[in-house]
Design a protein that fits this description.
Elements (H helix, E strand, L loop, with lengths): L1 H16 L3 H17 L8 H18 L1 H6 L1 H17 L4 H13 L6 H14 L4 H13 L3 H14 L3 H13 L5 H14 L4 H13 L3 H14 L4 H11 L4 H14 L3 H13 L3 H14 L5 H12 L3 H14 L4 H5 L11 H8 L1
Helix pairs in contact: 1-2, 2-3, 3-5, 5-6, 6-7, 7-8, 8-9, 9-10, 10-11, 11-12, 12-13, 13-14, 14-15, 15-16, 16-17, 16-18, 17-18, 18-19
């Protein structure tokens, strides 16, 4: 019996190690049968038996994780093994942490409450269970409990400086009801030191600086982004938008460089607005029309065209595009209609009808 049991266990673990999960599950199931039905547990200690249940649960999920996380019956089959493992090792924080992470991956329902309970138990058993702290912090952040999440992320960062935790704490500081954009910018900066080529860190940090009205610092983040990814048209457009009011020539260059990479409706539209501000209405008209040709559903271009035609005193085309912009415009319509360029038309009945709409 002992030899047979050991053979199934050793073979099952070897198959698991070689990622042959289906056969590993079969071998470990035979081992568990011997343990449960043939008194095989007499040859093993509780820790060893617990480990076999854990590996069988892991093999079941790994054999087809998409099915396991979407099929309630298979999922609970794995969770029964976690329960059996925990019955044998109720003070093992790793098991609670692993089960909590498994709960979070279920697709057919929300088990975040159960996951939280497991992570809290893991932390209670081991004050240095930082993996559970991180997962718990992520749940709390998604629930909008940002200060609680930040507390856990901060505990981790006191001991381990990893980029992901800096990012998680930064996002929580950014999103909380009273945002701390300065703290978020610092954390994104720390994450950049660890992952200097992760582009999303620079985008987030630029947003922090924009919220802080530190536009020069935001521009510097886009300078770094463009060094990392010089063929990304969107980065030139975003930097151009930051420079739009303070350095029109630099903004114009960025929109043009974006268009050298690809025909982008926002680059055409933003450059059209700059040309209009400079009095170059023909160039502005051509760019705004190009924006619509590039993307016929790009509604902002209708607002730009209406403004350009208003400056050109082309009332018919102005109203045609303004009516479409009012109908489709996704931002504040009143702000759109309050543009000083429409002052000569404000008392006209057709314009008043637009206001009423």
């Amino acid at each position: 019996m002992q030899e047979k049991l050991n053979r199934h266990i050793e073979k099952g673990l070897a198959l698991f190690e070689s990622r042959d999960y289906e056969d590993a599950y079969s071998e470990l199931s035979q081992a568990i049968f011997l343990i449960e039905e043939e008194d095989g547990e007499m040859y093993l200690n509780s820790s060893q038996v617990s480990e076999i249940y854990l590996f069988r649960a892991s093999a079941l999920i790994a054999s087809d994780d998409h099915v396991a996380y979407n099929d309630e019956a298979i999922f609970f089959q794995a969770m029964e093994d976690y329960e059996a493992a925990l019955d044998l090792q109720p003070a093992n924080p790793l098991l609670y942490n692993l089960r909590g992470k498994t709960y979070l991956k279920a697709k057919f329902t929300d088990y975040s409450k159960e996951a939280k309970a497991d992570f809290l138990r893991a932390i209670e058993l081991d004050k240095e269970e930082y993996s559970a702290m991180k997962s718990l912090g992520e749940i709390l952040s998604k629930e909008g409990k940002y200060d609680e999440a930040i507390r856990y992320f901060s505990m981790i960062l006191e001991e381990s400086k990893d980029a992901e935790t800096y990012m998680l704490r930064a996002v929580s500081n950014f999103k909380k009801p009273r945002p701390d954009f300065a703290a978020a910018a610092r954390d994104f900066g720390e994450a950049q030191k660890i992952l200097p080529r992760l582009e999303e860190l620079y985008i987030w940090r630029a947003q922090c600086f924009q919220e802080l009205r530190q536009y020069d610092s935001a521009v510097l983040e886009y300078d770094k982004l463009i060094q990392i990814s010089p063929r990304n048209a969107g980065y030139y457009i975003d930097r151009g938008a930051l420079l739009h009011k303070t350095n029109a020539e630099a903004a114009l260059n960025d929109y043009t460089r974006a268009l050298d990479i690809k025909a982008h409706p926002l680059a055409f539209n933003n450059r059209a607005n700059l040309f209009a501000q400079q009095g170059n209405l023909e160039a502005a008209l051509a760019d705004a029309q190009s924006a619509l040709k590039t993307d016929p559903n790009f509604s902002i271009a209708h607002a730009s065209l209406a403004e350009i035609y208003a400056l050109m005193r082309d009332k018919a085309n102005m109203y045609n595009h303004l009516e479409i912009a009012v109908k489709q415009y996704f931002e504040d319509v009143f702000e759109l209609l309050e543009n000083p360029v429409y002052e000569p038309y404000r008392k006209e009945e057709r314009f008043q009808q637009l206001i009423k709409k």
